[in-house]
Amino acid sequence: MAYKNISSAEELLEVIKQIGFMPLLPCAVPGFSVEEMVDDECRYHVFDDGGWDWPMWKWKGPIVELGEVTYGKFFGGKAGYVSMDWWRCFSSYRRHAAPALSQDSIEMMILDNLRLLGSAITKDLRQACGFNGKNMRSKFDSYVTRLEMQCRIVTENFVYPHDKHGREYGWGWSLLTTPERLFSQDYCLNPTDNNGQEQSADELLEMMLRHLSRQLPAASEKQLLRLLSYNSK
């Protein structure tokens, strides 16, 4: 793997833009994730006093704020980045591959509530959708993850609690929204070919596979298909 020892958010952003797709944690392609490609000092560390530091985790907000990539649970239900150059192709493929949403489905209800809110952390969205009973948290989270895998929900930014001194702490929460709200409508339209015809799911997948096979020559086609597939969990 050519991309190693990444040591800053700026460097990571350039690699994401180059490759187009980047899981945060280990995935279907061995060695291909932020966790495996950053310098040792940027990985998770626990200090003797019980404190911790995880620089690559802290980079997420600054990277997403620049608007050159998007972030969500896109890879096997786990988080990662997709560059804006590949977003239309990737999101159109995923929406083709996923089951169509019926108007009376729970997923559509979640999307409708998120559109009304504009953006929300998972806890607030869950309350707005009425998932307040026992054991409802994990059930709701699974619906939201499916919608992220379908590229119908993305992360706009990250929200952190503050201590009494006003300092951020903890892991933070994803501020969720829809891509239609976060990006211009053009980024949510199906890509077209040179004749103005919408490209099929097979054509979109083939474009992504060709690109990734050049960027990741050691990866097999099976591994790349697992990375890109909607049913990759």
Task: Walk me through this protein's architecture.
The chain has 233 residues and is an alpha+beta fold. It has two domains: 1-96 and 201-228, no CATH class; 99-149 and 152-189, Orthogonal Bundle (Arc Repressor Mutant, subunit A). The chain is built from eleven helices and eight strands. The protein has helices spanning 9-19, 34-37, 55-58, 60-65, 84-97, 106-117, 122-128, 136-149, 179-182, 201-215, 221-228; strands at residues 21-23, 45-46, 52-53, 69-75, 78-83, 120-121, 154-159, 173-177. Strands 1-5-4 form a three-stranded antiparallel β-sheet. Helix 5 packs across helix 10 (201-215) and helix 10 (201-215) crosses helix 11.
| Shape label | globular
Mean pLDDT: 91
Tally of alpha and pi helices: 11
Strand content: 5-15%
Q: Gap between N and C termini, in Å? A: 24 Å
Instruction: Give the C-alpha Rg.
Output: 18 Å
Helix content: 40-55%
Strand arrangement, largest sheet? Answer: 1-5-4
- N-to-C SSE series? HEHEEHHEEHHEHHEEHHH
Structural class: alpha+beta
Stretches where pLDDT is under 50 for at least 5 consecutive residues are none
